[in-house]
Amino acid sequence: MRAERLTSAALGRTASADLVGAVLLSSVQLPSGPLEKGVRLDPAQADALKAAVDTLSGPVSIAWLDADELHEDEAAWRLARAVGGQGVIVGVPHQSRVDLSAERAGVLHVNVEPLSRLNRIDPIEVCTLYHGSPVKAGEVVASVKVAPHVVPSSVIKKGEAFATGNTRLVRVAPYLPLDVGAIVVEEVSVPALVHFEATIRKKITALGARLDGVATVAARSPADAEAKSRSTLEYLVLQRRLPVVLVAGVSASDVLSPFFAALEALGGQLLRRGVPARPGSMLWLAELSGTRILGAPHCRTFDVRTAADLILPRLLTGEAITAETLAEIGHGGLLRG
Fold first, then answer.
1. The dihedral sign for the CA sequence 138, 324, 311, 127
2. Cβ atoms within 10 A of the Cβ of 223, count?
């Protein structure tokens, strides 16, 4: 890169054609309006700058790119295309920044550790929302930028190769039109049950899924509760093959719950008792025949925002949530608002 501070006299001696393609390293105020720093001069801008030499308040800082260098906008755009994966729309450059937005509503996935390593490449800057965040269609999920106005192309090639080699760093998994079942394993009034169903239906409908219905397990004894829980799970999971089932009325801390006994008898397994988040530490996650079962201690747990509102969206993209997945929630798991 060749960079110079051109006085009015030196600028006057420079041909307009020699200014075309050069990059302003500082803003210039012209009678017709400002030319912002970072602008790569087109023929009209070069002519306007030449015509205004007598009005300039000081030298103009300009850089000419070498063959192995890129303008900041092209550099950011190329990086953004390498970073953005499935479900992501790459925007247009603006002041060396390119935003990536969600193609449609879903859950953001960020390859966090490789992202940190990419950002160690000077002067690449990639920032994102939290991994696992539910996002809306059109929402900005990441932003890509380079700091200098002129960047060596070798740096961008290195960043591109790194990003694409890590299966892209940012993607959005869309919600799927899944059928979701719900089970209430506690004594509740009819109004409370109606309220629970309305709450669940509203939440999953907003995420593009359908509520298949709410089953209740009313039992006279633990043995009766286990038998009824087992028959309900057999119907919803083994016969209906619903991919997601929500359970209200079973706490992660209740090791003697008849529901857990029924789950185990059918060959299911608890993947995690408790989630490293607050509120929501008494949530639990289980698996039976490929179905993910998300449980909470009470119906009213689903009335408020808890870690369930981070887990449920991911389940409704078809993601097979595991204990390792839930462990990641601890970073950012102190929920507010």
1. negative
2. 11
List b or e across 271-291, with b for residues whose CB sees 16 or more CB atoms inside 10 angstroms. bbbbbbbebbbbbbbbbbeeb
pLDDT of residue 32: 86
Read off the pLDDT band of 167 (50, 70, 90).
confident
What's the pLDDT at 48?
93
Q: Do residues 42 and 69 lie in contact, with contact meaning Cβ atoms separated by under 8 Å?
A: no
327, two tokens: 């462990």
Q: Which amino acid, residue 100? A: L
Q: Which residues pair with 4 in a beta bridge?
A: 62
Residue 76 φ/ψ region, left for φ over 0, alpha for ψ in the -120 to 50 degree band, beta for the rest: alpha
The 3-state DSSP class for residue 283 equals coil
Reported as a single tens digit per residue, the pLDDT across 79-102 is 999 999 999 999 999 888 999 999
Cis ω before 313 (30° cut-off from 0)? no
Interval 30-51: pLDDT, tens? 988 899 989 999 999 999 999 9
Residues in a beta bridge with 286: 270, 293
Question: What residues are paired with 64 via a beta bridge?
Answer: 2
Q: Band of the pLDDT at 337, cuts 50, 70, 90?
A: low
State the Cα–Cα distance between residues 330 and 337, nearest whole angstrom.
Answer: 17
**Three-state SS at 4:** strand
pTM over the 0.85 mark: yes
Nearest Cα to 253, choosing from 196, 295, 218? Answer: 295
Residue 83 amino acid letter: V
Task: Report which of 23, 317, 285 is spatially closest to residue 172, judged by C-alpha positions.
Answer: 317
